[in-house]
Specification:
By secondary structure, the chain is an alpha+beta fold. The protein has three helices and 20 strands. It has two domains: 149 residues, Lipocalin; 100 residues, Lipocalin, CATH 2.40.128.270.
Length: 282
Amino acid sequence: MYTPTSSHRTLRRGIAAGFALLALAGVLTACGGDDVTADKDRSTTTTTAKPSSGGATNPTGGVARTSWKLASPADGTDPTLDFAPEGIVSGSTGCNRFNGTWTEDGDSLKIALGPMTQMACTSDAATQQEKSIIDSLGKVASAEQTATTLVLKDSDGKELLTYDAVTGDLQGTSWKVNGVNTGNAVETSALTEALTLDFGTEGSVTGFGGCNNFRGSYTLEGGVISFSEFASTEMSCEPDVMELEDKYLAALAAASVVERSGNTLNLRDDKGATQVAATLAG
């Protein structure tokens, strides 16, 4: 587990000198006119593990830790449905985001919707789609789930909504962070917008913490993710930048569940709390 002990984190093991020189150029740009000094790097060896592709089917069965997108959505919309652990459900109608709860017992599934944003839809088709989704989710009594589809049915067995699986595979994807769990809340600010997360091939992961570049490895199995300890350059930036970087790396270390829905990524801990939120980099 990542545990910072000072602004010059003992977790940072440093990396090769060539990487450090490249990182220095990026840090000078990211920290602008701040007084930035480089500390001596120490080399380390990081074990790389190849991730398996995360699918929409929970390896233990059921809908927990699965993500879905509506089959045949209205033009210009991307309705989603995400089942987090501890009975938390969230998603999009294509116009608005919603939250709620879910309960499951065998093939039985019930969804109770809670708060929803109140944005206007951009077309009549999107408006009708939103009404259908909200009405249908409240009638769900059972689900028929495969590795690629989720069919929600009412108490009479009538099909209400059909969703396609959203793969959890992260290989070759790059993300811009827009939220970090700082211990009390998920913080979004100008500082978080500088953070990045990049998943390479063969289980490698790299990123920028606001002041330093870091690298490590990850494993992904059926939506369950685990990061190795991170190796990092050891630059110094303003205290608030350094503090956020500490909390960002700690949040990654705490993450255990991947929820990818379209161009959004949520990394949650085993209690369902969001640790890192990000959007796919253009």
